[in-house]
Write a structure and sequence with these properties.
The chain is mainly alpha-helical. The protein has 15 helices and four strands.
Length: 374
């Protein structure tokens, strides 16, 4: 999927991204990037969360060595403007964990009308996904990372009599990490969240705990039994779709020193190539699947054909769904499966700014591959 420089460029995308960053707005925290949610056929509503901003900063830091010197200056500026915003989403007691939504004050479904009457009574606990993404984005120190890792051991399956009730049977016995830090929340597995946790652990060279080994085993079983292909919405209730799962696995597997899933690379690569060549795969799914393949060291050949005006219009109108807020994810089987099929209680999330970063990531990785394979 080689992109010609006369259509789009990394330089253009980084400038587009900078224009998206909030300076002063009614609905969003200064320094964040706008994101929106939809419920079924409802119009999109602005949703002030830290999730996409955390992902954007984290990804920009990954891509930083691949950018040219002029673009690095702008990336530095984007990251510095974003950093103060994270405080609003940090645990309200000062604990080094993060929430999807504001904790100062607590909020659920921003601009949600009657849903905001539940801001305090139904506020979600902090979650491991936002926590590890935000700590990676902020570049927390190793001591703090180790302390959070120790805290995470208190929120695993089969701890204090709590057992997951809504995943595939071969996974129910594994003492892997739950998504939530809340003591009252049911145990919840999500393979994308688990991949992000392992990335965090490996990035900081933390000693593997029992939960880390169990999490690796969970990913292995999910790949071996093809759950990520056939039951992706059950295995990843908050991301749901196979292309997004492949993207997360490839990012983890490309991290230096992590080779615990190497035996499954051939089957994952084959799945990704099949998805990329399928005419029914949408444009942005092809982008993230192509990125996954590049991270696995695979060549991409299909050209990306969109001019600058088309790209700009595409980002303004695109509703590519990377993440879902799934109110039914914690239900036990079979209710979880029924509600998944009926698409009840699921809010789709998209961020034009994050879409820019996903395309930037693909372009820079493709450029890196081309330079290594002239």
């Amino acid at each position: 999927m080689a992109a010609s420089t006369d259509t789009i460029s990394a330089h253009m995308l980084i400038h587009l991204l900078a224009q998206q960053q909030v300076q002063s707005a009614k609905f969003f925290t200064t320094g964040t990037f706008p994101s929106y949610r939809t419920y079924r056929y409802n119009i999109s509503k602005p949703d002030d969360n830290i999730f996409f901003t955390g992902l954007i900063v984290f990804t920009l830091k990954q891509l930083y060595p691949l950018a040219d010197s002029a673009d690095k200056i702008l990336i530095d500026s984007i990251i510095e403007r974003a950093k103060p915003a994270f405080k609003k989403f940090k645990n309200k007691t000062g604990r080094n964990t993060y929430n999807f939504w504001s904790t100062y004050p607590p909020e659920v479904f921003p601009n949600g009308g009657c849903l905001n009457l539940m801001n305090r009574s139904m506020a979600l606990p902090d979650d491991m996904d936002d926590t590890v993404i935000d700590l990676l984005a902020l570049g927390t120190d190793s001591t703090s990372a180790s302390a959070v890792h120790l805290l995470m051991q208190q929120y695993t399956n089969h701890l204090n009599g709590k057992i997951i009730r809504n995943t595939k049977k071969p996974l129910q016995k594994l003492p892997a990490y739950s998504t939530w830090f809340g003591k009252k929340m049911p145990i919840d597995f999500d393979v994308c969240v688990l991949a992000n946790i392992l990335y965090f652990v490996q990035n900081y060279h933390l000693l593997f705990a029992k939960a880390d080994s169990a999490t690796v085993e969970l990913l292995k079983i999910s790949i071996e039994k093809k759950y990520i292909l056939k039951s992706s919405a059950i295995l990843s209730p908050h991301y749901q779709r196979t292309p997004v799962v492949l993207y997360h696995l490839a990012r983890l597997m490309s991290l230096s020193g992590f080779d615990l899933l190497h035996e499954f690379k051939p089957v994952l690569v084959q799945t990704a190539h099949q998805m990329l060549s399928n005419p029914s795969t949408n444009y942005f799914d092809k982008i993230i699947v192509a990125t996954a393949l590049l991270r696995w060291g695979e060549n991409i050949n299909a050209p990306l054909k969109m001019g600058v005006p088309q790209i700009q219009n595409f980002f303004r109108n695109n509703q590519f769904v990377f993440f879902k807020a799934n109110m039914c994810s914690i239900l036990p089987n079979p209710f979880k499966m029924i509600f998944e099929k009926l698409n009840i209680g699921q809010f789709n999330y998209f961020s034009p700014a994050y879409n820019i970063v996903l395309l930037l990531e693909y372009l820079l990785l493709q450029q890196q591959y081309n330079q290594a394979h002239p």
